[in-house]
Amino acid sequence: MAKSFFPGVEKPIPYEGKDSKNPLAFKFYNKDQRVGSKTMGQHLRFAIAYWHTMMGTGSDMFGGASFQREWHKASNPMDRAKETMEAAFEFFQKLGVEYYCFHDRDIAPEGANFAETCRNLEAMVALAKELQKQTGVKLLWGTANLFSHAIFSQGAGTSPSAQVMAYAAAQVKNAIDATKELGGENYVFWGGREGYETLLNTDLKREQKQMARFLQMAVDYKKKIGFDVQFLIEPKPKEPTKHQYDSDAAATLYFLKENDLADHFKLNIEANHGTLAGHTFEHELAVASAAGKLGSVDANRGDMLLGWDTDQFPTDIYSTTMAMMVILNQGGLGKGGLNFDAKVRRSSSDPLDLFHAHIGGMDAFARGLLVAQKMIDDRVLSKVIEQRYSSFNSGVGARIMAGQMGLQDLDAWAKQESLPVLPSGRQEMLENIINSYI
Ligand code: XLS
Ligand code: CA
Ligand code: CA
Questions:
Q1: Does residue 251 carry a pLDDT above 90?
Q2: Which residues fall inside 5 Å of ion ligand 2, going by CB?
Q3: C-alpha 298 to ligand 2 mean position (Å)
Q4: Is the pLDDT of residue 181 over 70?
Q5: Proximal ligand: closest to the CA of 272
Q6: Ligand 1 centroid to 190 CA: how many Å?
Q7: Distance of alpha carbon 237 from alpha carbon 241, whole angstroms
Q8: How many CB atoms lie within 10 A of CB 378?
Q9: Beta strands 195-196 and 243-244: pairing type?
Q10: Could you tell which of 104, 246, 341 is best to mutate to test the pocket of ligand 1, judged by most ligand atoms within 8 Å of the CB?
């Protein structure tokens, strides 16, 4: 690569251990270190989110761009897209991350019409393919941006306009093709504007049927082209739409079952979407995992004091520990990974801040992984949980669950038994134990 976009970082970020004072070094993330049965790199499968890291400008609702990115300088949109991609692969390599994720419109600009937009995408996919080959960096997932363009202001798959739905489907076809061409392991559907603002103009049953049909067309297409990709749905409760159909993991799982789509999709759980839905990150992971549907993770966090999707880098070791407990307990994420769907703050205007942000997120997850693996090895929680439900292993508990007793039998049983003695749940003791491991 001729031009350097990150001259402040000469070589790949090294691992220097926890006593290092070098801000451009990992303190905990040591890619080849074995943790349990895999290396840290294999466990964590980090990915960079192209839209934030390469396309982010620092703008917010009250002000325009605050970052002056060298890779955004070219005046021609395709030249700009190419420079951005060169910068992206330089960043991936210098950070030492093996995966990235993109929306179609992140990597290629819109043209004068749909056909030209598709040609732009094809040209950028060709460049991405070449850079992937040169660097060994891989595509974790691709997706279509079905929320920025004005035609999607009333939804894409759930639009009241059949023509808009058709246009969105055509866009998805091209985004799946791009993902296939780049060997992407997953393809994500986030229903950006798939929801509604008011029931005064909305038939929500019809819109959900439309969404199911939309997704079914995508399932049919991936089969047709023989693309063995894992489809993921990413729940989110609001923003931009007030009521989103995929509001959380439970609602999404119900939607998939109701529409015979459950066999074809797993979930991509984002931390900040979980908290916006009034849940914890680990709750959403656990709900998806319990259904055998935890496919991948968007690793970020919100802010307790701000009620919107702040997409900050994860720094909370407690949260990463709880997340890694769920992930390890289900044997890993398989084809999925940990995608940093996170952006540096508006005031963090130096490209170096992108390194600091990702180093922090990677170290936070590496620490979470180490703590979680140790707690699992020591059976700290599993022993307690097993014991807590042990009354179901024999006697009345076993007979209820085996379907051998009904309400009448239990009425007779209760009339001759004394009131049950319930053991303590020991929540505070367990909280203390976790803190002692962290
Ligand atoms: C927005 C979403 C989005 C998806 C991909 O809030 O997190 O970035 O991850 O479309
Ligand atoms: Ca996301
Ligand atoms: Ca988000």
A1: yes
A2: 270, 298, 341
A3: 5
A4: yes
A5: 3
A6: 6
A7: 8
A8: 12
A9: antiparallel
A10: 341
Q: Among all ligands shown, which has an atom nearest to the Cα of 52?
A: 1
Rounded to the nearest integer, the mean pLDDT of the chain is 98
- Ligand number nearest CA of 239 is 1
- For residue 2, pLDDT beyond 90: no
- Please, are residues 329 and 359 in contact by the beta-carbon 8 Å criterion? no
143 lines ligand 1 (CB under 6 A): yes
- Mention every residue, 6+ apart, whose C-beta is less than 8 A from residue 114: 167, 170, 171
CA–CA separation, 335 and 179 (whole Å): 14
Residues 341, 55: contact at Cβ < 8 Å? no
Q: What is the DSSP string of 136-175?
A: --EEEEEE---SSSGGGBTBSTT-S-HHHHHHHHHHHHHH
Is pLDDT above 90 for 39? yes
Tell the residue nearest (CA) to atom 10 of ligand 1.
Answer: 190
| Core vs surface per residue 404-415: b (16+ CB within 10 A) or e | ebeeeeeeeeee
Q: Is the CB of 188 under 6 A from ligand 1?
A: yes
CA 174/CA 172 separation, integer angstroms: 5
Determine the Cα–Cα distance for residues 297 and 208; give it in Å rounded to an integer. Answer: 24
- What is the per-residue pLDDT across 303-321, written as a single tens digit (0 to 9) for each? 999 989 999 999 999 999 9
Share of the chain above pLDDT 90, in %: 98
Tell me if 270 CB under 6 Å of ligand 1: yes
Q: Is the pLDDT of residue 38 over 60?
A: yes
Judge contact between 320 and 364, C-beta under 8 A: yes
Q: Is 56 exposed, middle or buried (0-12, 13-18, 19+ CB in 10 A)?
A: buried
- Whole-structure pTM over 0.90, yes or no? yes
Tell me if 341 CB under 6 Å of ligand 1.
Answer: yes
So which residues are the catalytic ones?
103, 106
CA of 75 to the centre of ligand 1 (A): 27
pLDDT classification of 10: cutoffs 50, 70, 90: confident
Q: Ligand 2 centroid vs 231 CA: distance in angstroms? A: 14
Q: Is the peptide bond before 109 cis (omega within 30 degrees of 0)?
A: no
